[in-house]
Amino acid sequence: MPEKIFTIPINEAMDKHEGCPLCSLRAKLEADNLKYSLGAAMMEPDVRIEMNRLGFCSKHFDDMFSAKNKLALALILESHLDEVGALFPAPDPEPGRKKKKPAKGADEADSVSELAESCFICSRIKGTARRYYSNFVYLWDKDPAFRVKLAGQPFICVTDAAGILRAGKAELKPSSYAELKDALNVLVGSYIASIRADVTKYCQSFDYRNADKPLGEEKNAVEKAIKFLR
Ligand SMILES: [Zn+2]
Ligand SMILES: [Zn+2]
Questions:
Q1: How does pLDDT run across 151-175, given as a tens digit for each residue?
Q2: Contact 153, 17 (CB under 8 A)
Q3: Helices (H), 86-173
Q4: Nearest ligand, CA 229
Q5: 220-223, long-range: CB < 8 A, 24+ apart
Q6: Which of 99, 59, 96, 61 has the alpha carbon at shortest distance from 77?
Q7: Distance between CA 211 and CA 150 in Å, rounded?
Q8: 71, 121, 139, 181: which could form a disulfide with 60 (CB 3.0–4.6 Å)?
Q9: Which ligand has its closest atom nearest to the C-alpha of 24?
Q10: d(C-alpha 230, C-alpha 92), whole Å
């Protein structure tokens, strides 16, 4: 029996009809994880070990910097710098200070690359998003009303279409997966056609011959295309 704790928030996000429903769930997840990272969790040793090991991506460092809790961020940075410092073992300016030793036999290039590419918040979001996708395809498979809901969405972005398809391929019968792909082809395919037409009109508006033709909804074409493609 698959875990289905996210079926209610997924349905609620679908009822909003504001952009990609899974992006709106992810935005909430992101805000919750930011609060979690700068909250009491950062004082828990197990959580801190993970933060030190994974670090943060540039977006989430920026988000944490913009948040109000500078002391929590500075404490996180202090211990994370020790972890990073172990990968760049310069002569110690404070002899006697306890220093982390790099793992034996680890390849420095691999270790530094892994650190540069990992993020504590991204990894937590990815874990929950996988469960969203799994619940999403479960609903799609079992609930005929959900299929109607999906067809009525403004769009599903490329990232979330990928997650849904991956979950569908792994968890649905081949016939059901084929129907899911068909449903996304209709929804996403027609959105691409409409946004492509708007982008073209936007490009044409730069032509001096169109200077006296004001843009309608197409004025938001670039922003809309980026929201869909990210
Ligand atoms: Zn999305
Ligand atoms: Zn991140």
A1: 999 999 999 999 999 999 999 999 9
A2: yes
A3: 108-117, 120-142, 144-151, 158-171
A4: 1
A5: 221/195
A6: 61
A7: 39
A8: 121
A9: 1
A10: 43
